[in-house]
């Protein structure tokens, strides 16, 4: 199961913690996870002190990213793995977990505090605009099956949308991606 993008809010409507915090126990970060006040917003006085403890898994290789920020974001939009207010199960990913992007690396200027429930709010007309393509013109993507791939950032927008959406029924042509 994939946690929702914005799982908790307090009585004032302040945003809870990122899915990146909620998966810590599954990415060798249980001790750090236990330090969070899960009933407080990501930027509460206590939780804010943990931003500097960003796990290596969330640190990108790009220059210009402030300490405690990450460029590893989830595409967030209609029919995406982390796009809703409720958890996504594997059963919800009807296009197949190996055909669905769950995470992407974005440009440094789109980096967010790793604990914040902020992700890649892409433009459906140009979903690749904010992706952090390397010198080879490809971007890093984590698929819902747990695999990691490099895809061409200049692929047609409709192809990227097929990858970002979990249950649109559209076939992915892998030859166009590499």
Q: How would you characterize the overall build of this protein?
A:
With 178 residues, the protein is an alpha+beta fold. Helices cover 11% and strands 12% of the residues. It is built from four helices and six strands, in the order H-H-H-E-E-E-E-E-E-H. It has helices spanning 19-22, 30-33, 45-48, 157-164, and strands at 69-70, 72-73, 101-105, 112-113, 138-143, 148-152. Strands 2-3-5-6 form a four-stranded antiparallel β-sheet, with no helix packed on it. A two-stranded antiparallel sheet has the order 1-4. Strand 5 and strand 6 (148-152) form a beta hairpin. The chain is globular. The mean pLDDT is 89.
Task: Describe the secondary-structure layout.
Blueprint: H1 19-22, H2 30-33, H3 45-48, E1 69-70, E2 72-73, E3 101-105, E4 112-113, E5 138-143, E6 148-152, H4 157-164
Antiparallel strand pairs: 1-4, 2-3, 3-5, 5-6
Q: Mean pLDDT, rounded to whole units?
A: 89
Largest sheet: 4 strands, antiparallel
> H/E element string?
HHHEEEEEEH
Strands, total number: 6
Gap from first CA to last CA: 28 Å
What fraction strand? 5-15%
